[in-house]
Amino acid sequence: MSSILERLEQTEHIRNLLVGDLGRLKPRLGERSVAVAHTAAQYANRRAYVRATFALVEALVEQHARLLVDLESGGAVSLTPEERAALSETTYEVRQGGQIRMRDARLSLDRKLRLVYRLAGEVLGEPLAIRFDDQGWVSFREAQRIRDALMHPKTPHDCYVDERQLNKVDSAEEWYRVVHNEFTRVAEQHRASRKW
Predict the structure, then answer these.
(1) Do 141 and 110 meet the contact criterion of CB atoms below 8 Å apart?
(2) Which of 71, 97, 168, 194 is most exposed, with minimal Cβ within 10 Å?
(3) pTM for the whole thing?
(4) Which distant-in-sequence residues (6+ apart) come within 8 Å of 117 by Cβ?
């Protein structure tokens, strides 16, 4: 199952690159105090930090989804055709002439998170200890709205990340780190027992 090992290596490489980006940006965010005036460069770094945080989360969620599909392809786990299509973010449509065609079916990040980690718990044989009803999840959703405002600003205010918002983004990243670590723990147990 070399493709599974390649997926694991690819996931770790992506994680290391993006965690490195966060580490390089963090010291450039400026002091976390409302009493301090921040420079244009610090605000730019704050915007980049928020985007980099969500790039990390989205990349790892995608890699985890792909790993589950790879495991199913290799016979290590079972997925229904619907689960496989959802993890692959594809759906089917019937064209005018009656032909069936696959098309993209992009999931929102929160739906994809819930799907990937619910299915991981089911197919890997142990539910992941992840909460979608705690303060961590609330902070994650709030940080997601901050990122969305940066990506699609409606006012100049949307382009500035203040201390409270940075703290929400940090909380979101901490919550997701727990999710990632829990996925890794359960996947490693499955790997050891199934020898993939």
Answers:
(1) yes
(2) 97
(3) 0.91
(4) 64, 128, 130, 179, 182, 183
Kindly report, residue by residue over 110-158, the tens digit of the pLDDT: 999 999 999 999 999 999 999 999 999 999 999 999 999 999 999 999 9
Tell me the sheet residues that pair with 103: 91
DSSP 12-55: HHHHHHHHHHHHHHGGGS--S-TTSPPPHHHHHHHHHHHHHHHH
Tokens of 150: 């940066």
Q: Please report which confidence band the pLDDT of residue 2 belongs to, taking 50, 70 and 90 as the band edges.
A: low
Q: Which of 100, 115, 124, 102 is nearest to 193 (CA)?
A: 124
